[in-house]
Each structure stands twice: as structure tokens, then as C-alpha cells.
Design a protein that fits this description.
By secondary structure, this protein is mainly α. It has 2 domains: 1-70, Tetracycline Repressor, domain 2; 72-168, no CATH class. The protein has 9 helices and no strands. The protein has helices at 7-24, 31-38, 42-49, 52-70, 78-85, 91-106, 111-122, 127-147, 150-163. The chain is elongated and about 55 Å long.
Length: 168
């Protein structure tokens, strides 16, 4: 009979693995360098997570949980969302988000990534407005990451905020 996975060790490993992926991205992720950076072995990673795919899913879920905890539930304006998501400390998260998003699109599995944001925003605005908000913010974030044009993207977001209704 197999020994049960140690949940404390698994959670600690997951936390460190999430940090590693935020620093290095997912492209070309290999278990051997990841395990070495975490002070464990590829065999233990597979033991704790079952497979590389399960490990990656767990890492992405952990990163998403971290970000959700940081997002203030009492967002009052679109500018509040923008300031939070475009803050310099979120750059690693955003780069990873777009890496995962493009990979999911290649596999035809990007819909859940959009649905998560739709669910969050639809509690505040109607679905069409939520869709527009997602498109505007996603596009401006991609532009900002690609060009570093903070002032231009901030100005564009302010323009969008002046024409997109956000509930008071």
C-alpha cells in the first residue's frame, strides 16, 4: 500500500513552486531544474502531485488564489481594478497569465480563463459590460507588457473608464 501524501509538505512545495514559476515562467518547465530549485527531487514532485500536468494545474491554482486574496473585494471603480492589476509587483503574474492564456488558446481551452473574470465582474455589471471590460483591460495590459508604455495605457484606461459604466 502506498504511503499517503504529506499535505503540509505538498503545500510548502506548492508555495515554493508557484514562486519559481512566477520567476521563470512555464515555457520549457522541466521537473529536474524545478526540483533542484525547490530542494527536492523530480520523483517527490510526481509523488506529491501525480504528474507534471497536475503539478502545473496546482501551481496555477495557487497563483490565482494568491492574486484573489490580494484583490480588494470592495473595488469601487475601473481605475481601482487597473491600479491593482497593472501594479509593478503583478508583472510576473501578468506575464504568466498571458503565457497560460496563449497556450490554452492553442489547445482550445481558454474559455475558463475568460469565464473566471466574467463571473467576478458580472457580480458588478451586466455581462456585455463585463465582456467589454475584460477586453479593454486585457488589451491594455498586453500592450503595457509589450511596450512598457505606462502613461499611454493609463490614459487609455482613463478614457475607457469615462465611457464604460461602472456601478456606484
Amino acid at each position: 500500500m502506498a504511503r499517503p501524501v504529506n499535505p503540509t509538505r505538498r503545500q510548502e512545495t506548492l508555495g515554493r513552486a508557484a514562486g519559481y514559476v512566477l520567476d521563470h515562467g512555464l515555457a520549457g518547465l522541466s521537473l529536474r531544474p524545478l526540483a533542484e530549485a525547490l530542494g527536492t527531487s523530480p520523483r517527490m514532485l510526481l509523488y506529491d502531485f501525480g504528474s507534471k500536468d497536475e503539478l502545473v494545474r496546482a501551481i496555477l491554482a495557487e497563483i490565482r488564489r494568491r492574486e484573489e486574496r490580494l484583490l480588494d473585494a470592495d473595488v469601487r471603480t475601473l481605475e481601482d481594478v487597473w491600479r491593482w492589476i497593472s501594479a509593478p509587483e503583478r508583472e510576473a503574474f501578468l506575464r504568466l497569465f498571458f503565457e497560460v492564456y496563449v497556450d490554452a488558446m492553442k489547445r482550445g481551452e481558454a474559455s475558463p480563463l475568460v469565464e473566471e473574470w466574467l463571473a467576478f465582474l458580472s457580480s458588478r455589471v451586466d455581462e456585455a459590460t463585463a465582456t467589454l471590460l475584460i477586453a479593454v483591460v486585457r488589451g491594455l495590459l498586453l500592450d503595457r507588457l509589450a511596450t512598457g508604455a505606462e502613461e499611454r495605457t493609463d490614459t487609455a484606461l482613463a478614457l475607457a473608464a469615462s465611457v464604460i459604466a461602472w456601478p456606484q
